[in-house]
Each structure stands twice: as C-alpha cells, then as structure tokens.
Amino acid sequence: MNKIGICVVGWYYFSKFYKQLEGSEFEVFVVAHRYNKILDKHKLKYFVKDNVGVEYGAYNYYINNIWKKGYDVFFMHDDIDCLKFNDVISSNYKILKKKNINHASIVNGRHMSYTERFFYMSSKFTQIMVEEYGGVWYDKENLGYTSRKAQPSHWHPRRYNLGGLEFKKRSIDIEKKYKIKIRFTLRDERVTLYHRGKKKIKGTYNSKEKEQQRLSGNRQKKQRKREEKIFNIKHKKGQ
After folding, report:
1. What's this model's pTM, rounded to 2 decimal places?
2. Does one domain contain both 190 and 210?
3. Which of 64, 138, 153, 222 has a CB 3.0–4.6 Å from the CB of 57, allowing a cystine?
4. 96-125 pLDDT per residue, tens
C-alpha cells in the first residue's frame, strides 16, 4: 500500500474541492489559516494556525507536526478544482514513482511552469529538507502578505515572495548535493488552479495568447533575475 499524505492550506474553502477531500483514500490534513465550518462538515483533520509565512508557514507546520516518516506528500492550496481527485493523485503518483522524481509541480496549462500551488515531495526529499534545514523556511515577518500592495510599504517590492525564493534555493542545493530529480512539472488538464481564489489560470490558449505568453515569459525571466538579486542581497546581510 502506498503511503501518501495530502497537505491542504485552508483559506478559500472551495466546497466542491473539500467534498472530494472527504471521500479521499489518502491521509488528508488541512493546515488552516482561518476556520470554516466546512472542515467539520466534511469530517476532515485540521489545525488552525496564524497566517505567518503564508503557505510556506503551513507547509513547515505540516512537515514538523503531521508528516509521518516514509510518507510521500502532495501539498496544495485549496483554491483548486480536480476532476476526480483520487484519480489525479494516483495517476500522477505512478508517473513520479516510475521516473524516480522526488519533487514536482502539478499544473493545468501548457504555458504554466513550476508552482507551489500544487506540488509533490517524496519522503526522501522531505526527510532531507528536515535534516538539512529543519523543514520549510518561511518569512516570520510575513503576516499573510501575498502582494506588493498588501505588504508593508517599507519592504522591498518583492519581499512578500521571499518564501518561494528560499524554497527554490534550498531545493536546488539539495539536488546538487544528493543528485536527485527535483523541480519537474507534470501537466494535468483535470486540474484547475485559481489565482487567490478568483481568477482561473487557463489551461489552453490560442496563437495570439501564445505570443502574449511568450512575451510574458520574457518578462518573468527578467523578474526572476531581480528576485534572485533581492534574495542574495538579503542573505548577504544575514537577514
């Protein structure tokens, strides 16, 4: 029997999604940043914690308090839709195990790259993360800020995303040191991801949209370079 854990960050509470979680064959646990009666309605195991470090704070809590050694885990936001949740997890899990991939993102669009909205960590990768770093790093000063407008005005414009930058850096360091396969992307059209609970991230596009995405991709590359610079500056100063 496969040992698979499911960590969900509770915030938006999409009813259709939570209904599928109740009937899941896997071990589901919700790390909620705010309570909603839907958790008890669907008889889910959960813990409500302050929204510190946004999703990375939730992932770290799960790994250090809920995760069982030997279990592979799928982490996800709760503003997603899955056509047959159990099948999505099972089929992607088979691919990951067959290809010996220890860390991957599940997305729905051909143009969408790696994301921590819905991703997988093998028990091996999780154990290394715990042994090397004590879990998932998160910004203890980020009290739920998910955008430039929401964060304190004196912060660097991209400070709110520091958790993602740190996660990326540590993942790459682990890949180099342990020679394992990480940061892969699996595309599954049965999965629909949303942006902060509202705007659907589309899974297909026409030729005009494709060109827009290409241009957007170039902008994203430049933005990533700026983010890396921010990250390096902060850590050189010991922050």
Report:
1. 0.82
2. no
3. 138
4. 999 999 999 998 865 566 678 899 999 999
